[in-house]
Amino acid sequence: MFAAENGLRGDPRLQAISEAIRVVPHFPKPGIMFQDITTLLLDPEAFKHTIDIFVDRYRDMNISVVAGVEARGFMFGPPIALAIGAKFVPLRKPRKLPGEVISESYELEYGTDCLEMHVGAVQPGERALIIDDLVATGGTLCAAIGLLERVGAEVVECGCVIGLPEVKEKFKLRGTALYVLVEPRQLEDCRLRSKLDTRREAEDFSLSS
Asked: Which part of the chain is the Phosphoribosyltransferase domain (predicted)?
């Protein structure tokens, strides 16, 4: 579910989060409108809003594990974990973790990929939250769910900062609930915002002259 449809409609924090995300057209290949969350991280207030909304949602769900998907899940997961009193577990791409691992493969548009987790990082019966920056098809999150369920964890929910509108039709991945803060920004939205900011600056300068 989207946060705006679950009690946060009209919450100014969601608008601030959305506006802090930069759209980079045709990256990493033509036709892709890349949602760049590095600009969100540069905005302390918007970044705090992001963490606060997740923490408000999960602090009373008895979650003991926050699993972050490489790599941008590593940016949002640790502060959420600290705030709710949970441990953070990184889910990494192949050959990145030094110890014994278990692996889960998933399909990509062209080929396959894999997520790995340290053996013993999560215990049977633990309640887990999976965090990533963006959900599109849900393939990566389904692999993350598979990893955690294989070791006996209960995956409570997947939380993402950005979700494509299409995910409204499938708010469960492998039976696990999905929670999303904002929809992707469009390039037109960014241009309109830039024009409005320029107009306000001109009006402010005029008033001060």
From this structure: 43-164
Confidence of residue 131 (pLDDT cuts 50, 70, 90): very high
Q: Are 96 and 80 in contact (CB under 8 A)?
A: no
Instruction: Please check the confidence at residue 125 and state whether its pLDDT lies above 70.
Output: yes
pTM (whole model) above 0.85: yes
pLDDT recorded at residue 170:
62
Could you write out the DSSP letters of every residue in 109-171? TTEEEEEEEETTSS-TT-EEEEEEEEESSSHHHHHHHHHHHHTT-EEEEEEEEEE-GGGGG--
Q: Which of 11, 14, 10 is nearest to 162 (CA)?
A: 14
Q: Which residue from 134, 143, 145 is spatially nearest to 167, judged by alpha carbons?
A: 134
